[in-house]
Design a protein that fits this description.
Elements lengths: L1 H8 L33 E4 L5 E2 L4 H8 L3 E11 L32 E11 L4 E5 L7 H12 L50 E4 L5 E3 L12 H9 L3 E4 L10 E3 L4 E3 L4 H6 L23 H11 L23 H10 L3 H8 L2 H6 L9 H13 L9 H10 L3 H5 L8 H7 L14 H14 L13 E9 L5 E8 L2 E3 L9 H16 L10 E3 L1 H9 L2 E2 L4 E2 L4 E2 L2 E7 L5 E6 L2 E3 L5 E3 L2 E3 L4 E3 L18 E2 L6 H5 L1 H6 L5 H8 L5 H10 L5 H11 L29 E2 L6 H9 L4 H10 L4 H10 L7 H9 L20 H4 L10 E11 L7 E8 L2 E6 L2 E4 L8 E8 L4
Parallel strand pairs: 13-19, 14-22
Antiparallel strand pairs: 1-2, 1-3, 3-4, 4-5, 6-7, 6-8, 8-9, 9-10, 11-12, 11-18, 15-18, 16-17, 19-30, 20-21, 23-26, 24-25, 26-27, 26-30, 27-28, 28-29
Length: about 850
């Protein structure tokens, strides 16, 4: 038999690899679906690429690549059998097969056990070889199989390590003798006893002293008074006040110089009047809430509709998304995006085409992972109701298990999150993020990956007309920009319960000063009309340069809609920055309407009685020494020397580093590094930096003694040079600068969101000489060279229509900051509101529309 297996595998030996360092083994999830070893058909892992495939997709990979040998992994989950004594009999076969494999469900270890099996499968004949089969398989195959079975799953390294298991019990915990000094710690209003600090406060478990910790790299911390206190008193144990939960707290030992465990922490805290059961910071799913705000508890209950008997729903469009640990911001955004028909049509409607033409590594393909996620949410394949027999069996056993027994497991967005967050410093972390920022991030990815194809984000795309008026001359300038979301201010001064708020604030300050119990919180009630009014009011333009006066002057800007999108996204600006630069939420309610009419905010363009500002730009002001000797400017241009030295320390030539920093506009070492990588093969890569003279006024200023430059002509050559030096085509760079009013930073963003499209020679020539005066003739009666270029290339990019909308979804945030808390979304489907709370999907009884953060409206038909 051994000889037979060896001969059978001989033709395939060159394709069987042993995983090397850096190879990712996808043995917990299919690249095209959410099938796993727990699925009915199990999971097939390619023994060459180590990609995982469900039963429906493995044939496609075989046909595309010719890889024939796969490892089939299957996990059998069952309830534990009961022995004669009533105890569970643990039973596990092939225990090492699934080492480091994530579970796709939350097991109760007392109720379930699992059996794992693995086998090699040879395509196309589906010949199966059970594993382990060490004696009968060739040595290379045995080593490869063992390496795959014992390799960590592909995303194991991206998960936060469980440092709690490594923390040791402090040797001072059991012998601690606390002082009976009568100290009682209030539930809020803490501050350092020596410096008035209110952040990073530590309670000494010996004498109850509340003191600040050290200053940390993330901006938190204090003045080190807790450490000084230890040096003075030799009291070693302290607990961080804002980490106390019913499950424990962060304890530090100054003597042992590390975080420690205190098995008697509850008793030690009760000595100072702290009841751990009343300290709420983290909920059952790991979502952060506030310690000392009863209002947040109320907010938590209202938004999640806690305490109500919500009916669970299953099937197409009712699939939940498993929380990976503070990933609810991703779940809510993707649930809503895939309730939009354009996204459904683009990614799910074209599912087979996307899968068939996917690259060899589909885990790194945006379209593939979007299609996979969309199909998982909309197919109903992963949201099936329990069988009646299962429910009856659960009722017979224990009634309370019914509540948990038929909760759907949801799908895990692990592969999708890894792809869309790749290279992003925030979204690639395991911290909570702002759902609004992630929404714009996904739209940006859709834009970049939809070149030449249908672009579903066009449904959110609209034009904003900005009108700037010089306060002295009363002249105006109109421009347009692209946007995807309107941000409405939340004017607290417009609250209908302002007197209540003032009284509460006075009582709160008094309680804080006297270390007393804070009063019952009061939430501001703001009319939606006041938010809309604040959005339309004029705002001052900082550092406004009036081309009519040819000098700085006062200017005001108003914004209106030049077009209305098919789907309108409205964000309520609930968050502001505190003194510690941490985003904090304004606690308020807004009576957001179900129906919204924005027609009166339609832009009108230049009016007959208005006079335009001259098309002039501020003159380029050169230093005095430059005016005397233009070469001195080119010899020593201003640049970030710190960035230059950082690049030089990497081993790049100094002159190349200087050019990289200069040509990227001093935008930082990372941008300069990218420039170096793109230009290091050029023959003059290490040549000294030489610049053209900046004193040449050019033809555009010959008729203008002030040196102002007409806007209608080409953008500043130095800005064009910076963009072209970064590898962008000249015509595309000029196009981007014109579209952003010659703002270099915005032009760079524009280029990334508007990949170069093929244009006729005539259009290219036009872009280099003069603006297209008819680009927005359909939207406005006047010409404007700063209008969105998308109207020039394709009128379908903006789906203009009536400004009347109906609310169909909203995202709510629970907590005091975008950096913590929890997100929940409500979506109106089939005439009823549905709440999506991670993997739980239920019919909503009381959708909390007044507490939302981001609202989604769809356009009403004109009829």
């Amino acid at each position: 038999m051994a000889a037979d297996l060896g001969e059978l595998l001989v033709p395939y030996m060159p394709t069987i690899r042993v995983p090397r360092t850096g190879d990712r083994v996808f043995k917990s999830e299919c690249a095209f679906s959410f099938d796993s070893p727990e699925s009915e058909g199990g999971l097939y892992v390619c023994m060459n690429t180590f990609l995982g495939f469900g039963r429906e997709h493995v044939e496609r990979h075989y046909r595309k690549t010719g890889q024939s040998v796969y490892m089939h992994l299957k996990r059998h989950v069952k309830e534990k059998t009961t022995g004669a004594a009533g105890g569970a009999i643990p039973r596990r076969r092939n225990g090492k097969v699934f080492l480091d494999l994530e579970l796709n469900r939350d097991f109760n270890g007392e109720d379930f056990e699992y059996e794992d099996e693995a086998k090699l499968v040879i395509f196309p004949d589906h010949f199966e070889i059970p594993l382990p089969n060490i004696e009968e398989l060739p040595a290379l195959v045995t080593i490869a199989c063992d390496a795959v079975l014992n390799a960590p799953s592909a995303y194991k390294k991206q998960e936060p390590e469980s440092w709690e298991e490594e923390i040791q019990v402090s040797r001072h915990a059991r012998s601690l003798r606390q002082l009976n000094n009568g100290v009682r710690i209030p539930p809020s209003g803490w501050k350092c006893q020596k410096c008035e600090m209110r952040e990073n406060l530590w309670l000494n478990l010996k004498d109850g002293a509340v003191l600040c910790g050290k200053w940390f790299f993330d901006g938190s911390g204090g003045n080190g008074h807790a450490l000084e206190h230890y040096k003075e008193t030799n009291y070693p144990l302290a607990v961080k006040l804002d980490t106390i939960t019913p499950d424990g707290a962060d304890v530090y030992s100054f003597e042992e110089e590390e975080a420690v465990l205190d098995p008697h922490i509850s008793e030690h805290l009760s000595h100072f009047g702290i009841d751990m059961l009343q300290m709420q910071k983290r909920t059952e799913n790991g979502h952060h809430t506030e310690n000392n705000s009863r209002l947040r508890v109320s907010e938590w209950e209202v938004i999640q509709e806690s305490g109500m008997k919500l009916k669970m729903v299953y099937g197409s469009g009712y699939t939940g998304i498993k929380n990976l640990g503070d990933s609810c911001y991703l779940s809510t955004v993707m649930q809503i995006l895939f309730s939009v028909p354009d996204f459904q049509r683009m990614f799910v409607g074209n599912l087979q085409r996307i899968f068939d033409y996917s690259p060899l590594d589909p885990t790194q393909d945006f379209a593939t992972q979007m299609a996979k996620l969309g199909h998982g949410l909309l197919s109903g394949q992963y949201s099936k109701p329990p069988m009646k027999s299962e429910l009856i069996e659960q009722v017979m056993k224990e009634e309370h298990k019914v509540l948990n027994g038929h909760l759907q497991r949801g799908i895990s967005p692990r592969m999708f999150k890894a792809l869309v967050s790749k290279g992003h410093p925030e979204f690639s972390s395991n911290r909570q993020q702002d759902a609004h920022e992630f929404l714009l991030h996904v739209i940006n990815l859709v834009e970049r990956n939809s070149t030449g194809l249908e672009n579903p984000s066009d449904s959110f795309r609209f034009l904003v007309e900005e009108r700037i008026q010089c306060c002295q001359t009363r002249r105006v300038r109109y421009s347009q920009r692209v946007d995807y979301c309107i941000q409405l201010p939340a004017p607290i001064e417009a609250a209908t319960n302002r007197e209540e708020l003032l009284a509460y604030e006075a009582k709160r300050k008094e309680a804080e000063e006297n270390m007393g119990t804070p009063p019952e919180p009061v939430r501001a009630r703001i009319p939606f009309t006041a938010c809309l009014q604040a959005f339309t009011e004029p705002e001052n333009v900082p550092d406004f340069w009036s081309s009519a006066l040819q000098a700085k002057s006062a200017g005001v800007k108003t914004s209106r809609f030049a077009s209305f999108p098919e789907y309108m996204i409205v964000q309520i600006k609930k968050f502001t920055f505190g003194v510690d630069w941490v985003p904090k939420k304004l606690d308020l309610t807004i009576d957001v309407p179900d129906f919204l009419d924005l027609s009166r905010l339609r832009a009108t363009g230049l009016q007959a009685d208005e006079e335009e500002l001259p098309d002039l730009m501020p003159p380029i002001v050169l230093p005095e020494d430059t005016r005397e000797n233009s070469m001195s400017s080119t010899d020593s241009p201003e640049m970030d020397e710190t960035a230059v030295m950082q690049l030089a320390e990497m081993g790049f030539p100094l002159e190349a580093c200087r050019k990289a920093v200069y040509y990227t506009g001093n935008m930082g070492p990372e941008m300069a590094f990218n420039w170096i990588i793109a230009h290091m093969e050029e023959p003059d890569f290490a040549e000294p930096l030489t610049l053209p003279s900046l004193m040449d006024p050019g033809p555009s200023t010959s008729d203008n003694p002030t040196g102002a430059t007409p806007i209608g002509n080409s953008p500043p050559e130095e800005s064009v040079a910076i963009l072209t030096s970064m590898g962008f085509p000249r015509a595309h760079s000029i196009h981007a600068l014109k579209a952003t009013n010659n703002n270099l930073e915005r032009a760079l963003d524009w280029i990334f969101t508007h990949p170069e499209e093929e244009e006729t020679d005539a259009l290219s020539d036009m872009a280099d000489t003069e603006p297209n005066d008819n680009a927005f003739s359909s939207a406005n009666s006047h010409s404007d060279n700063t209008l969105s270029p998308d109207r020039e290339g394709s009128g379908s990019r903006v789906k203009d229509g009536a400004g009347r909308y109906e609310l169909f979804a909203f995202i709510s945030h629970i907590g005091a900051s975008t950096m913590s808390g929890h997100y929940v979304c409500h979506i109106k489907k089939e005439g009823r509101w549905v709440i999506y709370n991670d993997h739980k999907v239920c019919l909503s009884e009381r959708p909390p529309k007044d507490l939302g953060y981001i609202y989604f409206y769809h356009r009403l038909s004109s009829s």
